[in-house]
């Protein structure tokens, strides 16, 4: 797929400086630009590369003025990084655009099929499923009974959505994600075994939620596990039953959140974090990678460590952590000197 500088400038509402008819068919870093590629310059430390890049087109800020000759055609916009991101989104929409129903696939006769939809081969869509406009369900996905998928939502290959779950508009569920599997509920029995507690609830994803590959979100024991609008979950995350995650919170890979914990809005949680159950995490909380959260957390706290405590205190304490062998040696030497004088 090729685009001219003039076409790209039209998409970005930018201005072409150079050849408006020059074409690009791929993307590149500015330092690795080749003929036929598109790149961008937003970080000033990369400015020297604009004079050596072989990229055919470079997106730059309106304020950029070259101080020596360049060979690349410029597209000037208000914000080069934002413009390049917008172009990536536009390209991704075109690349992933599919329509129609491939065979073999199974769609229950109770399902009303919208005019614009894509259903890939070997997809299963169960009884009483509600499909929004422009939904895309890629091959080998499973959509259980009574599921609702909102407008423009995408389920990538191998995504699994169990019965009764509700998925909002403009959501993305990546390959291998499982939405609505049973929560981890077992009660001990008198003979030392365990009996399963039925998980009768569901999972609700509000609008603009992204779920990473291999991430699992368990259905509630009763009620709903709720992921609020704008939440972004990375790959291989475990969200347990009856958890609630506030809007616009982001969580990095391999984090686990135990049952019934409530996480606030606009939180940023690093990778491999463990959060215990039945806790309340406030708004705007930041948790550094590999931390363990075992207590309630107030708004705006920044935590690190396992068990976690204040980020600033953790950094101060780390100075002592890493020097413990030296400190122990010094204490032993001092004890010997004291004992020698007694």
Automatic annotation (TrEMBL):
InterPro entries: Hexapep, LpxD, Trimer_LpxA-like_sf, UDP_GlcNAc_AcTrfase_non-rep. Keywords: Acyltransferase, Lipid A biosynthesis, Lipid biosynthesis, Lipid metabolism, Repeat, Transferase. GO terms for molecular function: UDP-3-O-[(3R)-3-hydroxyacyl]-glucosamine N-acyltransferase activity. Its EC number is 2.3.1.191. Transmembrane segments: none annotated. Residues 22-89 form the UDP-3-O-[3-hydroxymyristoyl] glucosamine N-acyltransferase non-repeat region domain. It is an enzyme of class 2 (transferase). Pfam families: Hexapep (PF00132), LpxD (PF04613). Homotrimer. Belongs to the transferase hexapeptide repeat family. LpxD subfamily. This is UDP-3-O-acylglucosamine N-acyltransferase. It comes from Winogradskyella litoriviva. The gene is lpxD.
């Amino acid at each position: 797929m090729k685009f001219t500088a003039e076409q790209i400038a039209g998409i970005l509402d930018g201005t072409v400086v150079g050849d408006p008819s020059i074409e690009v068919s791929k993307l590149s870093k500015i330092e690795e630009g080749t003929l036929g590629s598109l790149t961008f310059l937003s970080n000033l430390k990369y400015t020297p590369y604009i004079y050596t890049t072989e990229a055919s087109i470079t997106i730059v800020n309106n304020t950029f003025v070259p101080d020596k000759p360049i060979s690349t055609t410029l597209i000037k916009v208000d914000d080069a990084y934002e413009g390049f991101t917008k172009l990536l989104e536009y390209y991704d929409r075109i690349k992933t655009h599919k329509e129609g129903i491939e065979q073999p696939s199974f769609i229950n006769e109770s399902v009303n099929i919208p005019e614009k939809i894509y259903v890939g081969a070997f997809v299963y869509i169960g009884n009483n499923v509600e499909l929004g406009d422009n939904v895309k369900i890629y091959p080998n996905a499973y959509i259980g009974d009574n599921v609702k998928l909102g407008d423009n939502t995408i389920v990538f290959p191998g995504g699994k959505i169990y019965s009764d779950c509700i998925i909002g508009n403009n959501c993305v569920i990546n390959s291998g994600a499982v939405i609505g599997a049973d929560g981890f509920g077992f009660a001990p029995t008198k003979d030392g075994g365990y009996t399963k507690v039925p998980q009768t609830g569901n999972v609700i994803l509000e609008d603009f939620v992204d779920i990473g590959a291999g991430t699992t979100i368990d259905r509630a024991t009763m009620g709903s596990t709720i992921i609020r609008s704008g939440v972004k979950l990375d790959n291989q995350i475990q969200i347990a039953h009856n958890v609630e995650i506030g809007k616009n919170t982001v969580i990095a890979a391999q984090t686990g959140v135990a049952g019934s914990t409530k996480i606030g809005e606009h939180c940023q949680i690093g990778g491999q974090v463990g959060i215990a159950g039945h806790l309340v995490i406030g708004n705007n909380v930041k948790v550094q990678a590999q931390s363990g959260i075992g207590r309630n957390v107030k708004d705006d706290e920044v935590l690190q460590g396992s068990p976690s405590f204040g980020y600033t205190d953790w950094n101060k304490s780390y100075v002592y952590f890493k020097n413990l062998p030296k400190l122990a040696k010094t204490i032993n030497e001092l004890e010997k000197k004291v004992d020698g004088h007694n």
